[in-house]
Each structure stands twice: as structure tokens, then as C-alpha cells.
Amino acid sequence: MDILVCENVTGPAMEDLRRRFEVEFVPELWRDPKALATRVGTARALIVRNQTQVTAELIASASKLEIIGRAGAGLDNVDTEAARRAGVVVTYAPNENSVSVAELTIGLMLALARNIPAADRDTRGGGWNRQAFMGNELYGKILGVVGLGRIGRLVAQRAIAFGMRVIAHDDYVDATSDDFRRLHVQLVPLDDLLHRSDVVTCHVPLNDETRGLFNAERFGRMKPTAWFINTSRGEVVDEEALIESLQRGRIGGAALDVRRIEPPRTSRLNELDNVILTPHIAAFTHEAQHRVVAAVCADVAAVLSGEAAANALGPAVPRRNSPS
For residue 6, which of 65, 52, 75, 60 has the smallest C-alpha distance? Predict the structure, then answer.
């Protein structure tokens, strides 16, 4: 077998792979790690989304594996260090879904500001309660962007177009670069950002530094009227601390597209009127998914054909099965 696809990765680029290579498409295989470990043993390539846990053990069981293709921007479900040690290429789509994620972030911000979900539900139920849904403008408000990578920058640009003032926190941004200067964004310490912002939006990768970044202490530093938005990774938020902060009025509201456990178990978040919940759809637009799948499939095809991957994290050609 050339390629094992163990999640629902589809589209024209995948159909092209099917014409060129032997592809085994088992979109629910990620749910059975033992079966996955058995079937990946003969694969030269593994294509996943975010559900499959590509562990060191799984990589070790795949003796013919040359490339892991992650159809998405994050790599927290892939043991990239184990792949590097094994000489397996890891490719992903770091930029292809950025616009879609940024646009959903702005949409969630507007939904919080104008009470759109609650107003929709009430009106569908026969209500016409205009006074109950008095909202707020984004114009003139302060947006705090935590994580000023590609998505954070796109959010900042769109917020500025709404007339918002944007401040940001990112320890890895070069404040002297021309790209940063063109943003017209002020870099500030995280505590300062939390204290000043009317909206805080999170766009950080998941790692040891960011896991649990937003905890009770950090929510306690925010304005009681502020809104919190997370379209990055659920694990960066202490959900119990967020729930308590919302219930006690320490912050004004929240919108979450990602959760610590997905799909989430029953949560008190479901009962709160000042919360908007979506099922990890930020990158799920037709345009973004077309670009993501096309980029990953192109890299998989390249590596299986003896060429280098364009979007590899680390080595772009495999070492495990290369001639000695």
C-alpha cells in the first residue's frame, strides 16, 4: 500500500492521488488505535487530520513509512520529534486555512457584540424583543490579540478595518520588522493586554508554554465586560476557570470554536447564555479545505515520487527508507 488515509480527507487532490497511487481510505480508522497500528505497517504515507494521535509507537510500527501528511495547520497530534528521529517527513498546511480562521474569529466577535445567536433563537420562537438584544459596536473598542502569527495578523488587519484599536502579545515577534510595522499594532505584555482589552482573541499553537495559558488568574485580569474568543486549541484554556469566570461575571462572554476534549463531554458551558459554541469549524470552508488538501496531497505525491516536500517541518525528504 502507498497511502493510508485514516480520517475524512477528500477532494479533487485526493482523487488525483487515488489515480496515481494505491490509496486505502478508512476515514474512521483513527477511532481504533490498534487497528491503525496494524494497517499502517505497510503504508509509505499516512494522511491524517487532527483526531489521529500519531505517536512514537505508531511511527515505530510503520516500518515503510516515508511521510506523514497532516491536513491542517497544527501539529500537536503528531510526535514530530519521533518522526524526525525515524527519518519520516512531516508535512502540513501552515497557511492555507488562515483566512477562514480569521474570518470566523471576526464573525464570533460580531456575534458576541450584537447577541446574534440569542436574538435569532428568540425571534424564531415568536419573540420580537428588540430591547432585550441591545448590542455594542466594535468601533473604538480595544482588541487584544494573543499570538501574532499569520492568523493573528489577519485578525488584526480586519479588526482595524472595523475601527478597532489593536494591541498584541507575542514573545516571538520581531517588532523592528517592516511586516510588523505595517500592521499598526502595539506589542504589550500579556497582563497589560488582558487589563486593557475589550475583546481578547487567542491564536497560539499548543505547546508546553501555552497549555492552560488562560486560567483563573488570567481571566481575573480581564475587564468584567470583556469577551474572550478561542479559535486556536482547546487545551490552552482551563475550561473550569472560564466557566467560573463567566458565571461570576468576571468576564462578559466567550466564544469557543475549540475544546479541550473533542467532541466535548457535557459541560456547564452549554447552559450559559453569554457563551457561543461552534464545533471546530474555523478552517472548514470550501476554499480553505481545497487549499489544505491540495497542499498536503502535493507533498505526499512529491515524496512518494522521490522529490522534496514543500511544506515539511524539518527534513523534506525521508531518511528511513532511502538507500544507504
Answer: 52
Largest CA distance in the chain: 74
- At residue 263, the 3 state secondary structure works out as coil
**pLDDT tens sequence across 13-63:** 999 999 999 999 999 999 999 999 999 999 999 999 999 999 999 999 999
Peptide bond into 263 cis (omega under 30): yes
pLDDT in tens, 90-145: 999 999 999 999 999 999 999 999 999 999 999 999 999 999 999 999 999 999 99
- Domains, the chain, in order of start with CATH, read 3-96+286-304 (3.40.50.720), 98-277 (3.40.50.720)
Q: Which residues are known catalytic residues?
A: 233, 262, 280
The rounded Cα 253 to chain-centroid distance in angstroms is 20
Cell 494573543 belongs to which residue?
146
What residue spans of the chain are helical by DSSP H? 12-20, 33-39, 56-61, 80-86, 98-114, 116-124, 150-161, 178-183, 190-196, 216-220, 239-247, 286-304
Nearest-angstrom CA–CA distance, 85 and 320: 9
